């Protein structure tokens, strides 16, 4: 039972690093203490692929592995490989299965005996043990999978919420460690030391609140203090470096360069994607999910967009028609951009989006320029051509902020939008 010395909080405040990048993918690594290496077959360190190329995702995914490995170190030193979580749950389940007389005669004495042993080395662990076994605290990850299965969002959103709760549970191992003050300190750390924006921290806490509510509704915890109902401190004004890194529009000539470079590299699909974006202003996800049945030589129909305003028809610019005609004729899988691979969420834009990232880097573009920057280019060109904001919003699929247009208007006609989109012009390549 000495494993409970691992206590109820896994401190992530100092977890800087622990990552290696190999062939574009991140791995979590942790050196095994010299006195324990024989116990782990002579290995000098643990290493595990995090299956992601994103540093942000890697920072989150590493926490689960680090917590497990450190618990194993503590277990090896105590002479047992049974983890703290399983031991605590086993005692709790056995205690809860006793009837009231058995609890009185045997259960309480056993809990007190184990708690006394723990208190000699870790009073906090002893207190947590008593709370968990007595039903007054809960291992926070215990019902995570059941909650995750109950979510009705898109698979990618569900996975993101699950990762956020894992981040939370890596900091607060048991519900007894969750207090309003400790959550406020954690949220502040995410902003100050973790460098996260206030909106990101708000999103993390939203997922954690949802999970906490699930635990309360299903009777797994009983609390009246609402420890996660805190206000996230707004970030200070952007620094010069942050303002410099804000997404920027491409110049029209830059879009032409990108398109030409994709053609020169023989990446026809990427060249077609860039051409579709530069004449429509559509998002990459919208273009990659376009089906042949949703496209004609007059208009492109965007369905199942990110918002209600995103579902729309976009007129086809005359310059785009030859490419559309070719793509419609050559499609062999029902999609306008045929043959794109999908990720585990069924997203067809993931791989080709990364190819765009490598392409723009070759041409010297930095972090502020992404594929979405082409959409900004289209918006800028329409504004400079004198197109009204309402018409541009209908073309790009943005919500209108005014009550008259946003609430009552059915939107600009296809003819009006066609006249507006006719203002898009790009310089001829050299």
Q: What does this molecule look like?
A:
By secondary structure, this protein is mainly α. The chain is built from 18 helices and 5 strands. The longest helix is centred in the first third of the chain and has 24 residues, at 55-78. The chain is elongated and about 85 Å long.
The tally of helices reads 18
In sequence order, what are the helices and strands, one letter per element? EEEHHHHHHHHHHHHEEHHHHHH
- Share of helix among residues? 40-55%
Calculate the mean pLDDT score and round it. 83
What would the principal axes of the Cα set say about the shape?
elongated
Number-wise, the strands total: 5
| Major sheet size, sense and barrel closure | 3 strands, antiparallel
The end-to-end distance, rounded to whole angstroms, is 74 Å
Unreliable spans are: 1-16
Name the beta content range: 5-15%
Structural class: mainly alpha
Q: Please give the radius of gyration in angstroms.
A: 28 Å
Spatial arrangement of strands, main beta sheet: 1-2-3
Keywords, separated by commas or semicolons:
430 residues, 51% helix, mainly alpha, disordered N terminus, three-stranded antiparallel β-sheet, two-stranded antiparallel sheet
């Amino acid at each position: 039972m000495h494993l409970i010395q691992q206590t109820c909080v896994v401190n992530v405040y100092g977890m800087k690093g622990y990552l290696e990048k190999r062939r574009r993918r991140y791995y979590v690594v942790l050196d095994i203490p010299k006195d324990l290496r024989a116990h782990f077959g002579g290995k000098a360190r643990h290493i595990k692929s995090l299956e992601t190329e994103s540093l942000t995702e890697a920072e989150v995914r590493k926490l689960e592995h680090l917590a497990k490995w450190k618990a194993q170190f503590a277990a090896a030193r105590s002479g047992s490989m049974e983890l703290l979580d399983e031991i605590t749950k086993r005692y709790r389940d056995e205690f809860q299965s006793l009837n009231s007389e058995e609890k009185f005669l045997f259960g309480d004495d056993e809990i007190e005996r184990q708690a006394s042993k723990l208190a000699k080395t870790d009073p906090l662990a002893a207190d947590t043990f008593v709370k968990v076994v007595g039903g007054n605290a809960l291992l926070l990850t215990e019902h995570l999978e059941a909650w995750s299965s109950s979510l009705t969002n898109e698979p990618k959103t569900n996975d993101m919420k699950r990762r956020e709760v894992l981040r939370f549970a890596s900091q607060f191992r048991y519900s007894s460690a969750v207090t309003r003050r400790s959550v406020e300190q954690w949220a502040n750390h995410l902003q100050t030391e973790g460098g996260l924006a206030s909106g990101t921290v708000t999103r993390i806490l939203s997922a954690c609140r949802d999970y906490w509510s699930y635990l309360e509704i299903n009777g797994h915890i009983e609390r009246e203090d609402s420890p996660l109902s805190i206000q996230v401190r707004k970030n200070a004004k952007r620094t010069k470096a942050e303002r410099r890194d804000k997404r920027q529009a491409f110049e029209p000539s830059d879009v032409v360069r990108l398109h030409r470079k994709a053609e020169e590299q023989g990446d026809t699909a990427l060249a077609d994607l860039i051409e579709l974006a530069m004449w429509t202003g559509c998002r990459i996800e919208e273009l990659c999910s376009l089906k042949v049945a949703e496209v004609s030589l007059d208009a492109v129909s965007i369905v199942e967009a990110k918002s209600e305003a995103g579902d729309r028809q976009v007129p086809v610019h005359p310059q785009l028609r030859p490419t559309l005609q070719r793509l419609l004729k050559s499609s062999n899988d029902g999609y306008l951009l045929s043959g794109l691979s999908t990720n585990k969420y069924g997203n067809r834009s993931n791989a080709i989006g990364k190819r765009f990232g490598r392409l723009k880097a070759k041409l010297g573009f930095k972090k502020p320029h992404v594929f979405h920057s082409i959409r900004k280019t289209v918006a800028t060109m329409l504004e400079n051509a004198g197109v009204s904001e309402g018409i541009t919003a209908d073309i790009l699929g943005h919500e209108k902020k005014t009550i008259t247009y946003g609430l009552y208007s059915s939107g600009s006609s296809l003819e009006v939008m066609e006249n507006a989109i006719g203002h898009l012009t790009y310089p001829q390549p050299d």
